[in-house]
Amino acid sequence: MPDFLTPKQEKLRQAARALGKHLAELSSASDDPNDLRTKISDASKAAGIFSLTQPKDHGGKGGSSTDLVIVRDALGSFNAGHLPGIFGPSPGLLGQASQEVKEKFLVPFLNGQIHGGFGFTEPSDAIRHTWGCYDGSNLVVNGAKSYVTGGLEADFINTLVEVEGEGPAMVLIESRSPGVEIAESFNSVDGSHHARFTFCDVRVPSSHIIGKAGTGLKRALDQINAVRMAIAANCVGLNQFVCDLLAESLAVGNASETRERVHFGRMRTMAFAARSSLYRTAGLLDSGQNSVNEVMISKALATETLNDLVDQAIQIVGGEALVESHPLAQIFKRARSTRLAEGPTEVLYANISRGFLDLNLGKI
Ligand SMILES: Cc1cc2nc3c(=O)[nH]c(=O)nc-3n(C[C@H](O)[C@H](O)[C@H](O)COP(=O)(O)OP(=O)(O)OC[C@H]3O[C@@H](n4cnc5c(N)ncnc54)[C@H](O)[C@@H]3O)c2cc1C
């Protein structure tokens, strides 16, 4: 993989490549963000890509892990994977919620009428993890979450809450409930927007607990795993984009310097390793094996490789690559957050060690 794709997967790859090329042209020609998003979604629907992230029982195409990797890798290789509106919303944790919650939130969420956030990270000064206690048929939640992406627009936050006596639970908290406050909103250098939420005696119906209390960490990690694969696949595509861009630059400059060729060869070696790992992990996921450790490996490898490659490419191209409008400068800013978001590399490495040493899990 990707050299061993089935004819159907190869067709998907071609469709995603054509879409990536089109979106890259579209994004450089358009300056109205709303108009751009609509055009992107329309093009993605026409290419048969838009609903791949939605399961079949929610009206989508239910793409496999390998399908999603193929598409994200192809889009990344045109530096288009970060654009908004390519994929429709996927139910995520809402798909596992109670019937009552599904009826109220799932349909408007999938139609794009309401928006959600994911509340996992605690503020560094938190005295205790966000917690909840039962009071009759309600859960009373207190605490804070620090880095909720899209928090300002979110109508609800799927929040990891430590339920007293039962353990961690994912709980849907409506962001306009009494006691919920946005303490701060901020942007990170990659261009994404976030909010810090505080919860003060927020009363949430017990039916808003997703699945059983005590299973929250596993549910959160399942969601995180899917996002780790998405980040890794986009980075793998970008690794190719960076290598292609540098190859063009070296050809124009007619690089005969051994030093540059050695750097370029090392970059291609790293890109090959990251890409091979990613497709192998997608295959393991599709075969139903426990692949938590391999997902961490692929995410760490893809993101660290991209940061290394883009930094090296800038160094070789020189100052013009740091002009803000240059694609390498833009990728440099976006790539940095991938080493932290959905688990810093060091935390992944520590967990990969734990997986093998304590749980006898994980392949090489
Ligand atoms: C763009 C972006 C989007 C994000 N979106 C969300 C979101 O939607 N929802 C959400 O909940 N969070 C989100 N986050 C937060 C993200 O998950 C955290 O930043 C990340 O998990 C690191 O946590 P932290 O910032 O608290 O750093 P810390 O946990 O304080 O870690 C700082 C550093 O300490 C070291 N370290 C920490 N723990 C260990 C360990 N066990 N072993 C070895 N080294 C360790 C690592 O070097 C690490 O990089 C987002 C972050 C970014 C950058």
Radius of gyration: 21 Å
Give the distinct bound molecules: flavin-adenine dinucleotide
How many helices? 9
Determine the mean pLDDT. 95
Number of strands: 8
CATH superfamily name of the largest domain? Butyryl-CoA Dehydrogenase, subunit A, domain 3
Strand content: 15-25%
Examine the coordinates and then state which fold CATH places here, giving the name of the CATH topology of the largest domain. Butyryl-CoA Dehydrogenase, subunit A, domain 3
Domains (count): 3
User: Can you name the CATH architecture of the largest domain?
Assistant: Up-down Bundle
SSE class: alpha+beta
Q: What keyword list fits this structure?
A:
364 residues, alpha+beta, Butyryl-CoA Dehydrogenase, subunit A, domain 2, Butyryl-CoA Dehydrogenase, subunit A, domain 3, 3 domains, 9 helices, 16% strand, globular, binds flavin-adenine dinucleotide
Summarize the structure.
With 364 residues, this protein is an alpha+beta fold. It is built from nine helices and eight strands.
